[in-house]
Design brief:
Blueprint: H1 3-9, E1 25-26, E2 40-48, H2 49-60, H3 66-72, E3 77-83, E4 89-92, H4 99-108, H5 118-124, E5 132-136, H6 142-147, E6 153-157, H7 163-170, E7 173-175, H8 179-184, E8 190-196, H9 205-214, E9 216-227, E10 248-249, H10 252-262, E11 265-273, H11 276-291, H12 299-309, H13 315-321, H14 324-327, E12 331-340, E13 356-357, E14 363-364
Parallel strand pairs: 5-6, 5-8, 6-7, 8-9
Antiparallel strand pairs: 1-2, 2-3, 3-4, 4-10, 9-12, 11-12, 13-14
Bound molecules: zinc ion (ZN).
């Protein structure tokens, strides 16, 4: 599927920096921001739920049952709103996908649980053979398999009912538990806790993140990855970037806010780069279109040739030396926040999420 054909099905998407011009809205009946809880937001776009269901079928071959559609269609239209307090973009009204929704997605889309994400390799590079690692919402355990033998302990948890079965099939320790349940008896137990592309699915981010953070040892790290809202792999967004699959869209500012709420330190935010073919595609469909705004005979050919030459030797030397991809914001799908827990425990989050460590390594809320 081309970016153009996808874009044509989502004509409401606003390109660019996404600073909406509309008047701020205040409507307490709307879904609050999943990150900060504010209900003050600006409208960015509207998408009929009927379009989301039909596009899931068109893009992924997924047929969602009428009962699942009815349970997730809270209104005819899902609004995408920009939180005026934290900048998160989120959908309203929207609820997370039910287990039945995911069952229908995974039965029609066998590659839903991908075996590889860019951030898997990135995080693997941070690990030591002494590390104890917990992967929260580990799916079929692809990351656990990748780091098996690299670290001292690798454990996964997932609320997906077949998680334990997946684990036994691939020889990995996967438990069918929620992060809240697991954190209750694994406080400060892991050097590294990962949650890859989870928070964008949640209606309330911080309770989940706080529970995962409780499992991190003092001095250890919590690693969160999210789809980068400013990604350039594709200039549009697909049906899985809408509710009930994804409820929010993130930039690095919001990852920084998560760390602030944890009273923790952001060590780094890494953004997935575009590969060569993605870069050529992005140059052809955006940068060079802007550089040559006036249409003339041969323009399309020139854009095609220049987009290919830009990454070919010797121009590729200039490309990398001047870090043009970075300057042009040409990033791929994901970004990863590495958040370090202070050595001095136990830090509180808010008055409602204070916790303390007991001698048996469990946590008290
Ligand atoms: Zn917010």
């Amino acid at each position: 599927m081309t970016a153009m054909s996808k874009k044509s099905r989502y004509p409401h998407i606003i390109d660019g920096d996404g600073a909406p011009d509309n008047e701020l809205l205040r409507d307490l009946n709307k879904t609050p921001c999943p990150l900060c809880g504010s209900s003050v937001a600006a409208l960015i776009s509207e998408t009929p739920y009927a379009d989301i269901w039909s596009n899931l079928h068109a893009e992924w071959g997924v047929t969602i049952s009428d009962s699942v559609k009815a349970a997730h269609t809270l209104a005819p239209v899902a609004e995408m709103r920009a939180c005026s307090d934290c900048g998160l973009w989120y959908f309203s009204p929207a609820i997370p996908g039910s287990s039945q929704f995911y069952s229908e997605i995974t039965s029609s889309c066998p590659h839903y649980y991908t075996d590889h994400k860019w951030e898997f390799d990135y995080v693997k590079g941070l690990l030591k053979d002494t590390h104890k690692v917990l992967d929260v919402a580990c799916g079929k355990g692809a990351f656990l398999r990748l780091i098996s033998g690299v670290v001292d302990v690798a454990v996964g948890i997932d609320t997906y009912p077949d998680a334990v079965l997946f684990g036994s099939e691939v020889g990995q320790a996967i438990y069918n538990r929620s992060v809240d349940e697991f954190a209750a008896d694994h406080c400060d137990a892991f050097d590294v806790v990962t949650a890859f592309q989870v928070v964008e699915h949640l209606g309330a981010v911080m309770p989940f993140v706080a529970a995962a953070y409780r499992c991190v040892k003092p001095g250890g790290i919590l690693v969160l990855s999210v789809p980068n809202r400013d990604r350039r792999k594709d200039l549009s967004f697909g049906s899985l970037d809408y509710p009930p699959h994804h409820l929010s869209r993130w930039r690095e500012d919001q990852l920084g806010m998560v760390a602030d709420q944890l009273d923790a330190r952001i060590v780094s935010i890494a953004k997935e780069p575009l590969n060569k073919s993605q870069t050529i595609g992005a140059l052809r469909t955006k940068e060079l279109q802007h550089f040559l705004p006036v249409n003339f005979l041969g323009r399309a050919f020139i854009i095609k040739v220049v987009s290919r030459l830009a990454l070919s030797f010797p121009l590729s030397l200039i490309w990398s030396k001047l870090r043009l991809a970075e300057h042009l914001g040409m990033y791929g799908m994901s970004m990863v926040a590495t958040i370090q827990k202070p050595i001095t425990v136990c830090q509180g989050l808010t008055s409602s999420s204070q916790f303390a460590v007991t001698q048996d390594n469990s946590c008290r809320q």
